[in-house]
UniProtKB/TrEMBL annotation:
The keyword DNA-binding applies. Signal peptide: none annotated. Keywords: DNA-binding, Transcription, Transcription regulation. InterPro entries: Homeodomain-like_sf, HTH_AraC, HTH_AraC-typ_CS, MarA-like, Tscrpt_reg_AraC-type_HTH. The lineage of its organism: Bacteria, Pseudomonadati, Myxococcota, Myxococcia, Myxococcales. SUPFAM superfamilies: Homeodomain-like. Residues 231-330 form the HTH araC/xylS-type domain. PROSITE patterns: HTH_ARAC_FAMILY_1 (PS00041), HTH_ARAC_FAMILY_2 (PS01124). It holds the Pfam family HTH_18. This is Helix-turn-helix domain-containing protein. Coiled coil: none annotated.
Amino acid sequence: METGWWTLPRHALVPRRLDGTLGVAQKEARYPLTTPPLPIARFSTEALPEAERFGAWHDAMSALYEVSSSTDAARGRFRARATCIQLGPMILGTMRADALAYERSPARIRSDSLDHFILGLADGEVLIQDLGQPLSLPMGPLSGACIVLPRSMMAQVLPATETLHGARLKGGMARLLLEHTQSLIRAAPALTASQAPQLARATQQVIAACLMPTRATLDGVRPHLQATALVRARRFIERNLTEPDLSSARISAAVGVSRSVLYELFAPFQGVARYILGRRLERIHSALADPGEHRRIADVASEFGLMNEAHFSRVFRKRFGYAPREIRGTGLGRPVQPRARGAGAETRSQRLEFPMWVEQLRE
């Protein structure tokens, strides 16, 4: 039976000329001379007949859990999708699935002898699951991310791993671990298998810092945590550029870091306020260059919090070297481009299933 799993073909991510042919650089990208791409698998019930959807998800999750649904009707309406990457000795994934119950009974533990940990990241917290101990997750939808890694990797950086089962981590550290995991999954199509060991070690350090935040582990993982926090801060700023109360206090609260840490993160940008002003000016520049934008220059500037026309003209000219009116309607702006969604990249591929990857973690 078709399981719903497929891998992303590398050529689907390579740009082509208008005539569909590949240039020299693109050929090199399509046929890399060094290492193969990072393994990526995606699952979706969308293309499967309704009668097979629950069974496909059950088969995929059977590598870890005994799965049950509430009613036969619920099975018929079941929907799920997931993305997983094989990051060397660990697996990272994001998933969304309708309500089911998941269990690891003593009998199941004896039969499969899995000795892994799963870190479930959802709703602002991390749930630590030791697959060597009984577990019962009540009926409910599944939405979030996860990290599957062998006990040996946990034991290398955390003491007394047998005491971690069932523990929950909340707050800023939980958000950082989730953001780190999601960032790696988003970047996976551009990564290669040769980079996996280094990224797995970095993830191991992030896990150690989040679950046991001692001075030693925080010092070792500080660059990774800072990079993740900076990404979160820049995204928050981008979403709130038109908000008049976009301040360091609000950003630090949203990201989960102190203001002193926030100032340190934005030191390469000459400070938080300078970065925000620069992003607002870029957005105003793009709007004014748009031939379809007919509002007054002052109205466009005020939308992004620059109310004083004289001040706005001065900082605009200082940044771009010309007055706002000179860019009006030229089409020469630098608009923020939406990230490509990889249309057509998830169409077909050889079969690759999550259970096989779980088995490989034993090795």
